[in-house]
């Protein structure tokens, strides 16, 4: 059993060494030509206007997270739907519970008003 952990430890050390060596090598070999235009903010090829530091509404992040959660959960439902005729009864019950969990989460988010776009 210790041999397996030794293999994982050696693999981890080699991985860390290679990644640190690549970062260090790129730092040493990079072209070093400082220019004030290189430190400017790039905004789709246009001249930036206004201050680059402004506060986003937290609602945008919450909306994105809710979308991501439901999108990932929908991905989990596709294999279940594809193999519906081949899966046993307990897997069907688990799938129904999963869909009910999605419905409860959707109702919660809806009642909180997080799906309202302002």
Protein described:
This protein has 118 residues and is mostly helical. The chain has 2 domains: 2-39; 58-112. Helix content is 65%, strand content 0%. It contains 3 helices and no strands. It has helices spanning 2-29, 58-82, 89-112. It is flat. It starts with a helix and ends in a 6-residue tail after the last helix.
Major sheet characteristics:
none
- Mean pLDDT equals 83
Shape: flat
Secondary structure tally, helices? 3
**How much beta, percentage-wise?**
under 5%
Radius of gyration over alpha carbons?
A: 25 Å
Q: How many structural domains can be distinguished in the coordinates?
A: 2
Topology:
Blueprint: H1 2-29, H2 58-82, H3 89-112
Helix pairs in contact: 2-3
Descriptive tags:
3 helices; 118 residues; mainly alpha; 0% strand
Short synopsis of the structure:
Helices cover 65% and strands 0% of the residues. The protein has 118 residues and is an all-alpha fold.
